[in-house]
Amino acid sequence: MILFENVTKKYRGTAKPALEGIDLQVDRGEFVFIVGASGSGKSSCLRLILREDQPSAGKIHVLGQDLSKISSRKVPYFRRSLGTVFQDFRLLTNKTVYDNVAFTLQVIGKSRGFIQEAVPDTLEMVGLANKAKRFPHELSGGEQQRVAIARAIVNKPAILLADEPTGNLDPATSLGIMQLLRAINAAGTTVVMATHEATFVDIMQQRVVELSQGIVVRDEQRGGYGETASIPIADLSEAGAQVLRTSEAVVRAALQPDGTPVVAPDAAGAPAGAAAVPTMEEALAAKQAAVSRAAVDPAVPAPEPVEPPRREASVFEEPDPFGDDDLDDTRRADAPAKRRIPEFLEPRSPLDPLRMSETGNLAEHLGLNRTDDDEQTDVGPVR
Ligand SMILES: Nc1ncnc2c1ncn2[C@@H]1O[C@H](COP(=O)(O)OP(=O)(O)OP(=O)(O)O)[C@@H](O)[C@H]1O
């Protein structure tokens, strides 16, 4: 789907190449994080995939096309198969939310009927159906980024390229954006995302390609952010970190795509499915029954909340995408020490999987359907 063969990119007037000898293959349906310190070449990589720029040496194939063979005139046609999302949203400020999304389809000549169907559907998906008539300046940062995502996916691209899409957002808002990108990937779109968000990279356990000074120094399935470009989470100021109000367990549970079957963590380390563990639906049904019994019989104690369980692989993933026993404090002595989120980041109230299961569509499931008087403040990134 994306193939880099010994790709080097040297910008004019610079002594050192921004990218050097990159070999990279991304297959259909993958979710790939590109990480690395500032200046390591992440954006250069995405620009080359988008054919905004050409390599100084080497070959790039995207969707079966040799990018060096696409004439400048044909580049806009090639880009129709790619969606792009950037840190700074890049919305048209004089157009409404609806028109921003519709514009993408208008410029590629889609019919009015198609647009009238596709735009509301996509706004619904990102939880902005009720903001179609608003202008970008009337939206929060997270909402603006969701408009940008709607615009990027409205034409159902095969590949979504995201360059630090959460870089301007606070952690809680970033979580919503990550959930959305994860759900879009689960629906079949290949996602390549450059990011500095160590927390999400560590938690999502997807493929990680790490660049350092223009060279791929790591290409790891189910990887973490790594240490080279990371600001240790322990260095976050407490005030800044309070904004997060979340924890690994909450984020893990929240990043489960809608309807994915889940299993309880298996402390004995048995393979998924080997033990008779309840599915998420069974666990919730059991909790519901217990709630009902407690309601009619005061002698019956109210049940403990259902733990957010670990999920099984979805169709596009390696098995067990969220790793093994990270929700469990007990760890094998020989296991490498992982960065943990400190206690002050714990959520004020636990995630309620029952409530999550009762909500309807994707946007509701992801908590994206907020009312006007429910605005959140974007306070800038905490990484
Ligand atoms: N148009 C350009 N002209 C000259 N040098 C450039 C240009 N664009 C990028 N560079 C250089 O190429 C290198 C890689 O930059 P790039 O923007 O790809 O890094 P990055 O990993 O995306 O950084 P960041 O995380 O800060 O966005 C840097 O040294 C940068 O200064």
Name of the CATH architecture of the largest domain: 3-Layer(aba) Sandwich
Main sheet strand line-up: 6-7-8-3-9-10
List the bound ligands.
adenosine-5'-triphosphate
Total number of domains: 2
User: Rough shape?
Assistant: globular
Order of helices and strands, N to C? EEEHEEHEHHHEHEHEEHHEHEHH
Number of β-strand runs: 12
Largest sheet: 6 strands, mixed
CATH superfamily of the largest domain: P-loop containing nucleotide triphosphate hydrolases
Distance between the termini: 31 Å
Mean of residue pLDDT values = 72
Q: Quick one: CATH class of the largest domain?
A: Alpha Beta
- Counting helices, strands and paired strands, the structural category is alpha/beta
Radius of gyration: 22 Å
Tell me the β content: 15-25%
As residue ranges, the low-confidence spans are: 239-247, 258-284, 305-362, 370-383
Helical content (DSSP H or I, runs of 4+): 25-40%
* CATH topology (fold) name of the largest domain: Rossmann fold
Number of helices: 12
Membrane topology: Peripheral membrane protein
Subunit structure: Homodimer. Forms a membrane-associated complex with FtsX.
Organism: Leucobacter rhizosphaerae
GO molecular function, one term: ATP binding
Question: Could you please describe the fold and organization of this structure?
Answer:
There is one protein chain. β9 (207-212) and β10 form a beta hairpin. The chain is an alpha/beta fold and 383 residues long. It folds into two domains: 2-237, P-loop containing nucleotide triphosphate hydrolases (Rossmann fold), CATH 3.40.50; 238-330 and 337-374, no CATH class. α3 crosses α4 (112-125), α3 runs parallel beside α5 and α4 crosses α5. The chain is built from twelve helices and twelve strands. 30% of the residues lie in helices and 16% in strands. The strands form three sheets. The protein has a six-stranded mixed β-sheet, sandwiched between helices. The chain has a four-stranded antiparallel β-sheet with strand order 2-1-4-5, covered by helices on one side. A two-stranded antiparallel sheet has the order 11-12. The structure holds adenosine-5'-triphosphate. Keywords: ATP-binding, Cell cycle, Cell division, Cell membrane, Membrane, Nucleotide-binding. Residues 2-238 form the ABC transporter domain. It is found in: Cell membrane.
